[in-house]
Design goal:
The protein is α+β, with helices and mostly antiparallel strands. 38% of the residues lie in helices and 16% in strands. Among the domains are: 140 residues, no CATH class; 75 residues, Ribosomal Protein L15, Chain: K, domain 2, CATH 3.100.10; 249 residues, CRISPR-associated endonuclease Cas1, C-terminal domain (Four Helix Bundle (Hemerythrin (Met), subunit A)). The strands form six sheets. Strands 2, 3, 4, 5, 6, 9 and 10 form a seven-stranded mixed beta sheet that branches. Strand 5 and strand 6 form a beta hairpin. It is elongated and about 95 Å long.
């Protein structure tokens, strides 16, 4: 098997310079639980069928097989890491129709639990439909497997009252309370002394009272009260509940008294008022709840609070001083996972065919299976040229929110396929509204151009063989002019001047080899391929360095476009790059400060470490292109750079550059929604 047929880039340590939308309220007739010989319900009761997501997923899997396989009956596995694929964008305001539908919907017991735990978490999940998974969520769902694997029937109220059901264990029963607008899925229901006792399973441990006795946490007490309310609404008597904690294997009783019911109904009213307001609550401040929250990478509590309460980012990220020299506080907990364990899949060899069997992608060429790749371990798929994917493979990748990026054989990024995971358009409405504000566009554009110029200047200072003092000083002076620019047109001119100064000295960033210095062409043949660089050219690139730069910028555009989609922004509507047909304006905007740090650095890394050599290029007329082996080598260099951990200048924690792209897009979303005032551009010291 040749490694040229495909490329899976794993994370590299090398250092270089569950709950879905609740069902609608049932009709006047009492629905019965799913299962054989459902027991009759009391008059006026509402019983909602069990969650069938696993059954539907298995059914969909059977319909989508490319070939017969032993994996045919495997369920789709949900990835365990918090990742952009399982997130949706936050929105500042919701339409009246959306708010009305949420107000009229039955409130799940879990959502009331989330409201008591953290109102912002409730807003993300209930109002905006944002869900993500971490280890705690996956482990909790795994522990519910035995409970959720079977749906039992409840006896009638008369049977319970007459004592005919002496000891009942009914699992995974869903009940609703139309009067209060509540719905709950009960893990286990026991029957004793003519009353129902709901039992809820929790992964953690109880809190300890002052006397050392175990007690149930407040969010779980409220959730248990909701279960009691839905049981009472269906005619059953319920005076207490039980929470079972897996970690300590303890059963803790929860008395259902009038005080708890009043607290629960008051919380229900407050939660509905919050959903009706359409305004997301502020993050918790330095809360111990945040580190283990599955949405911490989306909520960004410490980062948002820092930027809400500190000096404007102009005094933090857009000055010559570092963040440590600012008057703003910089104590931000490192709550975001530094890097993603998922892998990028690059399909480079022409004639490759990708099919799907179960939760595995099978990569073939000439009827020979070259490799099998687990979908749950893949974060994105990049297709170069004539590579075929089956409809079943595309459908499953969309279902798992794995984007598919399409490139020409020469590396031109021209398309993206992804699932319908971005169902909330409200943040994009804010994006479009702000894009019509010339003052906002100019202010953001100035910050982006200044940040890019600072990073270019840093590249020359750090990596040039003989740092050009004149060019560095000139760039510093132009940065001051950028901050005073009064139009996008003048800003474009200043950016062009900085780029010319930067690329005039780019050749000095290339380290000489044993045979020649990169400052002088090593051959008298003008068509000889070398890494000598004179100026930036493209469409087509006319020398190897420009060919690498063009491919690097295409890959960076792809990754920034994916990050914009993950957060919920429209990558085509930019603020600096004004709308133009077929151009990813916002992706180009946000990648400006990262061009020298990621793409240019990857090019220098590939050349200076001899990962690519002049033999990896072909000349066709006046253009130069990479061979398949050369493209593969550069992609490896690019992914190495994307996996490199960099320190954020404001938050002082380290993230991979792929994570950093998403973080910066989320910070822009905070600006658009009004949570923070100014966008902090990423610059390196």
């Amino acid at each position: 098997m040749s490694t040229e047929d495909f490329l899976i880039i794993p994370p590299c340590d090398e250092d270089f310079a569950e709950q879905s939308e609740p069902p609608p309220p049932p009709g006047p007739e009492a629905a019965k639980p799913v299962g054989p010989a459902a027991s009759p319900c009391p008059s006026g009761a509402t019983m909602v069928s069990n969650d069938l997501k696993m059954e539907q997923a298995a059914s969909a899997l059977d319909e989508n097989e490319d070939d017969d396989s032993s994996l045919h009956s495997q369920p789709i596995v949900i990835p365990t890491e918090t990742h952009p694929r399982s997130t949706r964008a936050n929105s500042p305001q919701l339409s009246s129709a959306q708010l009305r539908s949420k107000e009229e919907a039955l409130m799940p017991a879990r959502m009331l639990n989330e409201y008591i735990y953290c109102p912002r978490l409730f807003y993300y999940e209930w109002v905006e439909g944002v869900f993500a998974e971490n280890l705690d969520v996956v482990e909790g769902r795994h522990r519910h497997t035995r409970v959720d694997g079977k749906t039992d029937d409840l006896p009638s109220v008369q049977q319970v009252e007459k004592g005919e059901a002496e000891r009942l264990h009914a699992r995974s029963v869903s009940l609703a309370d139309d009067h209060h607008g509540l719905i709950a899925k009960l893990d286990l229901i026991e029957c004793a002394d003519g009353a129902m006792i709901p039992v809820d399973y929790k992964k953690g441990k109880p809190r300890l009272a002052d006397d050392g006795q175990p007690q149930v946490w407040e969010p779980e007490r409220v959730q248990m009260a909701v279960q009691a309310l839905v049981l009472r609404a269906n005619g059953y008597r319920c005076e207490r509940g039980v929470v079972y904690y897996h970690q300590t294997r303890q059963r803790v009783d929860v008395p259902i008294d009038d005080s708890l019911i009043a607290t629960t109904l008051r919380a229900l009213d407050e939660a509905r008022q919050l959903a009706r307001s359409g305004t997301i609550p502020p993050p918790l401040v330095d809360s111990p709840k945040c580190p283990r929250c599955s949405l911490v990478g989306i909520c960004l509590p410490d980062e948002t609070n820092l930027l809400r309460n500190s000096a404007p980012p102009d005094a933090i990220a857009s000055t010559e001083s570092s963040a440590a020299e600012s008057n703003a506080p910089t104590a931000v907990r490192a709550l975001v996972t530094p890097r993603d364990d998922l892998k990028s899949l690059y399909l480079n060899t022409q004639g490759t065919f990708v099919s799907k069997s179960g939760a595995v992608l099978k990569i073939r060429k000439d009827d020979q299976i070259l490799q099998e790749v687990r979908i749950q371990e893949t974060c994105q798929v990049s297709v170069f040229g004539n590579v075929q994917l089956s409809s079943q493979a595309i459908q499953t990748l969309c279902e798992h929110e794995v984007p598919i990026a399409y490139f020409s054989q020469g590396g031109w990024f021209y398309g993206l396929t992804r699932g319908l995971d971005l169902r909330n358009v409200m943040i994009r409405r804010e994006q479009f509204r702000r894009a019509d504000d010339p003052a906002f566009c100019l202010a953001l554009a100035k910050r982006l151009v200044a940040g890019k110029a600072r990073n270019q200047r840093t590249m020359l200072q750090r990596n040039h063989i003989e740092p050009p003092a004149g060019a560095i000083q000139r760039i510093r002076a132009i940065i001051q002019e950028v901050e005073q620019a009064d139009s996008l047109e003048s800003l474009l001119g200043l950016e062009g001047t900085i780029a010319r100064l930067y690329f005039q000295n780019f050749n000095g960033l290339i380290k000489p080899d044993d045979n020649h210095t990169p400052h002088q062409p090593p051959s008298d043949d003008p068509r000889a391929l070398t890494f000598h660089f004179d100026q930036r050219n493209r469409r087509p690139p006319r020398d190897p360095v420009n060919a690498l730069l063009s491919l690097g910028y295409a890959l960076l555009t792809k990754d920034m476009t994916i990050a914009c989609h993950a957060v919920g922004l429209d990558p085509y509507l930019g603020f600096y790059h004004q709308p133009r047909h077929g151009r990813c304006g916002l992706a180009l905007d946000l990648m400006e400060p990262f061009r020298p740090l990621i793409a240019d650095s990857a090019v220098l890394f590939a050349i200076n470490t001899r990962m690519v050599t002049p033999s990896d290029f072909l000349r066709a007329g006046d253009s130069v292109a990479l061979t398949p082996a050369g493209r593969k080598a550069f992609i490896r260099a690019y992914e190495t750079r994307m996996d490199h951990l960099a320190t954020h200048p404001l938050f002082s924690y380290r993230l991979s550059y792929r994570r950093m792209l998403e973080l910066q897009v989320r910070l822009l979303a905070r600006v658009l929604t009004g949570e923070i005032k100014d966008y902090p551009v990423f610059t390196t010291r």
